[in-house]
Write a structure and sequence with these properties.
The protein has twelve helices and twelve strands. By secondary structure, it is α/β, with parallel strands linked by helices.
């Protein structure tokens, strides 16, 4: 496009004097001109330059008249925007004028050319050209502004998306911390409550009618208190370390565990609970079985399940633990002669809805956190957990742990 200070006009006439006359009339207006003496010459100029503001085109020219020239000019897409004013003789008929409009003319000027009319009509199209230029610049500015707005909007969307992801990540971390807290509290409630019960029971026996106890009984009870106190301290240190690893996401540390010995340690801490209800604890795990498991998690699983078994077994009953190797896994079963469970309770046992009566046939209530923790710990080992029970006929909860084949 030409600038405002350079309105370019193409003058086309087969007579040089006519070209000179039009140029003299218009030159004071500051226009710039290109001249052609034929339609062919005009087309050659337009092939090189397409930024003209107006074309003044004579109708009657040899070889190629103005109509033919106009038709060829407007075959090019870029040239269709250039207005054409036909210059014609006074005797030109109205039919010819209509023909010119059909070929794309926007106006007519009759010969001999009236200078005032020529300047006036050209000025109209020059002003129109300037306004079109201004409009195009405004449109370009709007286009740039729209691009900037789109870019800004995209940047804002990206920022919002990033912030949303950050908030989602933070929310997930908070959820994980909350889960870790619940797990930690559940582990404490089972791993420390049981040895504390043994400690309380032994201390009560020792303090009650102390003068009636023989030195051997006093030594036995004090030994229980001493061992249990050390065990509580050991477990507390383990739990603190475990909680730290939970925050650092390094809390899963499987190792080779001799299952019989590990079971004896867990059951030893639960003897006081069983004695209170006169329940027999039986460890029927074979001597040659080893598992590849996280020691703290395995102990929590066993103590949760055995504690529940004692809790829902009537006085005089029994709780036993068995184990059997199955390919690369070891199936461990905690069996009790307790009150059993209904099908509805079993279906919800290891879900968030398990906070009611675990057995389903007595008034014992629990939080359900311990069993959710058992499910999660078993799953982290790649194991499965299942329960078989009927009301009044006891319960068997089976779970699997990876076998440590290196021990065989």
């Amino acid at each position: 496009m030409s600038s405002d200070s350079a309105i370019k006009i193409l003058l086309v006439d087969d007579r040089e004097d006519n070209l000179m006359s039009m140029e003299l009339v218009l030159e004071k207006e500051g226009y710039s001109f290109s001249k052609a003496t034929s339609g062919t010459g005009a087309l050659q100029i337009l092939l090189k330059e397409d930024d003209f503001s107006l074309i003044l085109l004579d109708v009657k020219m040899p070889i190629m008249d103005g109509y033919e020239t106009a038709e060829l000019i407007y075959q090019r897409e870029k040239l269709r925007r250039i207005p054409i004013i036909f210059i014609t003789g006074q005797d030109y008929e109205e039919g010819g004028i209509f023909k010119g409009y059909q070929y794309g003319a926007v106006d007519y000027i009759r010969k001999p050319v009236n200078p005032q009319i020529l300047r006036s009509k050209v000025a109209v199209f020059a002003e129109l050209h300037k306004k079109n230029q201004l409009l195009q610049r405004q449109e370009e500015k709007l286009r740039v502004i729209n691009q900037d707005l789109l870019l800004l909007n995209q940047q804002l969307e990206d920022r919002v998306r990033e912030r949303t992801l950050e908030l989602e990540k933070l929310n997930q971390e908070l959820k994980e911390l909350n889960v870790s807290k619940d797990k930690f509290l559940s582990v404490i409630s089972h791993d420390l409550r049981n040895p504390l019960t043994a400690l309380i029971v032994s201390s009560e026996k020792l303090s009650r009618d102390v003068e009636k106890h023989s030195p051997g009984e006093v030594l036995h009870l004090s030994g229980i208190i001493h061992r249990t106190s050390n065990k509580i301290l050991q477990q507390l240190n383990e739990l603190v370390d475990w909680a730290k690893k939970q925050r650092e996401k390094t809390s899963f540390n499987p190792e080779k565990i001799h299952l019989l010995n590990g079971m004896n340690e867990s059951l030893e801490l639960l003897k006081a609970n069983a004695i209170q209800k006169n329940i027999a604890l039986e460890n029927r795990v074979p001597k040659n079985i080893h598992v590849h498991a996280d020691a703290l998690m395995l102990r929590s699983i066993l103590q949760n399940l055995v504690t529940n078994a004692i809790k829902y077994t009537p006085e005089g009953g029994s709780v036993s633990v068995t184990a059997e190797e199955q390919d690369t896994m070891v199936e461990i079963c905690v069996y009790d002669t307790g009150v059993g469970m209904t099908a509805d309770v079993m279906e919800k046992l290891f879900t968030a809805d398990s906070s009611g009566s675990v057995a389903g046939t007595n008034n014992e209530k629990g939080t359900g956190l311990g069993l959710l923790l058992v499910r999660d710990f078993v799953a982290q080992h790649g194991g499965t957990i299942d329960v078989k029970s009927n009301p009044g006929s006891g319960t068997c909860i089976k779970f699997t742990m990876p076998s440590d084949l290196r021990a065989n």
